[in-house]
Each structure stands twice: as C-alpha cells, then as structure tokens.
Amino acid sequence: MSSAPTVPPLADVTASDASLRRFLHGLPGVDAVGLEARAAMLGTRSVKTTAKAYAIDLAISMIDLTTLEGADTPGKVRSLCAKGLSPDPTDRTAPQVAAICVYPDMAATARAALACSGVRVASVATAFPAGRSALPVKLADTRDAVAAGADEVDMVIDRGAFLSGRYLQVYEEIRAVREACVRPEGSTAAPAHLKVIFENGELSTYDNIRRASWLAMLAGADFIKTSTGKVAVNATLPNTLLMLEAVRDYRAATGTQVGVKPAGGIRTSKDAIKYLVMVNETLGADWLSPEWFRFGASSLLNDLLMQRHKLSTGRYSGPDYVTVD
Q1: Is 154 a catalytic residue?
Q2: Are the C-beta atoms of residues 4 and 248 closer than 8 Å to each other?
Q3: What is the topology classification, in CATH, of domain 17-312?
Q4: Where are the domains of the chain?
Q5: CA 244 distance to own-chain centroid
Q6: Catalytic residue of the set 88, 151, 154, 271
Q7: Active site residue 195
Q8: Which of 83, 138, 195, 261 does the annotation list as catalytic?
Q9: Do 141 and 104 contact (CB within 8 A), yes or no?
Q10: pLDDT of 241-267, one tens digit each?
C-alpha cells in the first residue's frame, strides 16, 4: 500500500469559498509518474484458478447494469432487470448484480421489476450527463427519481463551476442534492445513497481529480464515481487509484467510509480483476463489497459470464451464450 499524503487539518474547513479553496489547494500535488507506475504495476498481478473464480463472481455482484439511451423503453428496462436478477439462466449459482441504473423516468419500471429482490434501483439525475441546468431543475430531477423508487442517485457535478474555481457552488449543489435524496413525507425508507460523478476526462489533471474527490466527500457523497461513460476518457486505472487513495485518506482523517465507482470503458474480466486487485492492495478487504465498490458497466457482465462458464466447463462459449443488452 502506498503511503498516505499529508492532508491539511480538517478542523477549520467550513462551507465557505475561502475555507474550501484553502483546503483543496493545500492538498499535496499528485506525483503523476508515480501514480501511473503503481497503477500499471498493480495491473500486472496474476490471479488464477479459485481466486479468479471468486473475483469473477465478486465483480458480477458489483455491477451497476446500465441503460442510459434516448431509445430506452419499459420493455428494455424490464429485460435488463431480468438479466440483473438472473445473469445466467442456465446456472442459478451466478450472483445477482448490485443495481440496475436507468434514467429517472424509468425508475418506477425498474422498481416494479426488481420488487424486493435485493437488486437496487439506481437513477442518474441532475441533468445527466452534462449537468448543465439550473439547481431547481437538478433537484426536481433528483426528487422525481427518489419518489419513483430509486435506492441510489448518480449525480454529475458542474464541471464548468469546478474548473472555474467555484468550489462552494459545487459543494452546495452536492449538499442540496443529498437533501433531495430524502424520501417523500410519510415514507419510512432510508434516503437514497448519493453517488457523485466527476467526469474525470474533463477535469484535465490528477490534482483536480484529488480535489474533486475531497470536495464531494466533504459535501456528503456516499460514493465517488469516475465518469458518465459518455465522453472519450472514462475510468482508467490511474484515475481510479487516485480516488481509492482519497477515500482511504478520508476515512483515516474522519472515520467515514465512502465508496468508489469506476464507470465507462471496463469491458473484460481481465480489466475488472485489475480493478479488484487495486482495491484490495490500496484499501484492503473492507472495500471489496458491493456496498463500497461498483462497476458502471453493461458489456462487462457478458464477458464475466463467458469467463465464468469457461472456468466451470473448460471451454469458451460462443457469442450467443449470453444475451445481447
């Protein structure tokens, strides 16, 4: 495990522009060469036989199976839910996925299809994927998703505000969205968990990713998430490693544990296992659970299922072994 950087004192951090700026710019700069070298090294670890079988099932259980297209229909969402509940109909030992992720207008359809299965309903919100709308619109988007039955809300930060140094604006939006995750009056259900998406490919530097991680955690994020999957650069091993180190250091400083979700571009079992090795080496077994680590992916599930079948039968399946999402 790499050594933790020296984090500025948290005692004086307040919800003010000057305080947040002082803290975020007081974080140590990221050693890009060291970060990328460590990520590459962890990516070379070999995982074989029983450990590989365990890792594949763990990765399946961590997937947020996702459809976020303009052409989404209730039928497509119900089909995706059926796949999430029983990823391999020929093998009932295959684990369920962690969640089904949809747009807010499809959250009620997913809720009805998943019922009390334990698979969660996740909904993107806050004008996903650009995040370019007024705060009242973002909050209405969030409340609609929660009222429709979303267990989790994936919000996007205003990258323009963040890159302009308007940290307080971003902080206050996250706080407001978190408050909007509370269930409607009369409900006894817990508030929806909040995942905060940075869109790392648009943040330009590792220093900005570290600052965004701390800013979101200070504002109350339950998870921090790399990307929307809608831009050229999404999850990478180095930018995810940086976020893993941030949640490690945040727990050391505050005692609060925050989850991490890489999303976009993770398509193969080999890729997924690299991320799991990185989580284990950086954070330990505490985070090796769907409660604390997720994959934002859909095509990944098919490859995991084919690799799982290969381990159990000794032969690779044809492309028609799994359903096409």
Answers
A1: yes
A2: yes
A3: TIM Barrel (3.20.20)
A4: 17-312
A5: 12
A6: 154
A7: no
A8: 261
A9: yes
A10: 999 999 999 999 999 999 999 999 999
